[in-house]
């Protein structure tokens, strides 16, 4: 195959956080690669990281310590850290029960267990880095309408308004989110189960500062999390809230005033952060566990929420996606060094198998928390108390739990200088 036969090497369908991170990782790992990102929303050329002003209502993402290490490999952490709030402590408890587990970054000789970063800031940092990459071409606003395999790889139909063009590429990566229309069109089998709950997302303020502590609170009505939000230099009074609610409870919460929401939140969370004084703009979405057993086909791979969506209880969604992205890039880099076709099913299956165990264990961990803490049975409540106390007292169990929370529980995909071992393999 000659390069003259191709319009581009990789097409990324979706330019959100997952797609943009993949594009940047590919430029770092395989600088000669030509990448086309197809994004449904128009780019805003005037948006700049230099003009970014944090907003009280900004939605945010929890990044594990392992994700920080990956962004360091991408030479992006220096920028992200300017507006990243460290999580130095994690407090896990069962409302109304005595069991609790506490984690501290200092116990693991780290500055933080993780970080909270505004989604907009993360996106601006990614875009600022990608603007400097001439090998990346953006088609926006545009959508991938179809993908067809051929002897050269894949033909990708890209629609912008009424105009449709076809790009020939080695591989297309689907990164257009949990409701991926392209995934559905191509007939990927999706296993989906509803939790019968919604996640309400908002920023809140409390009378006591958060002390850089993330709270995971399990209640009889569902779990809730409060993540430290705001400055990275001093502990503030703002936190990012993830509140799990039934359909009926969500309707009631949305129907009342902000003051009444704060009062109901106080009843569910308690007084560990003092009084809730403010709640910002509320967003909500239904909670569903979605997995795709086979995330690759010849010339096609799924990443991010297009491959799996989790309950937000453990804050693992984007961190799992990031590890999957790096696993894919690792395989593509090795294939490029060997002179192999990047859309080869064998290469893409290596990515799938390397990421499968991490994905399955993370899904089981997140889903089991919901199942275990959702059982209103006296014996189970005692078992939960014993488990939380055991995690707090047993060094080995506590270390395992901390490493899982930090995103260090399994193999971390890496790329960089390709070793002679890889080249000779």
Automatic annotation (TrEMBL):
Keyword flag Protease: no
Pathway: Cofactor biosynthesis; ubiquinone biosynthesis
InterPro entries: FAD-bd (IPR002938), FAD/NAD-bd_sf (IPR036188), UbiH/COQ6 (IPR010971), UbiH/COQ6_monooxygenase (IPR051205)
Annotated coiled-coil segments of the chain: none
GO biological process: ubiquinone biosynthetic process
Protein family according to the UniProt entry: Belongs to the UbiH/COQ6 family.
Domain (FAD-binding) ranges: 7-365
Name of the featured protein: 2-octaprenyl-6-methoxyphenol hydroxylase
MF-aspect GO terms: 2-octaprenyl-6-methoxyphenol hydroxylase activity; FAD binding
Entry cofactors: FAD
One Pfam family hit: FAD_binding_3
Keywords (A to Z) from UniProt: FAD, Flavoprotein, Monooxygenase, Oxidoreductase
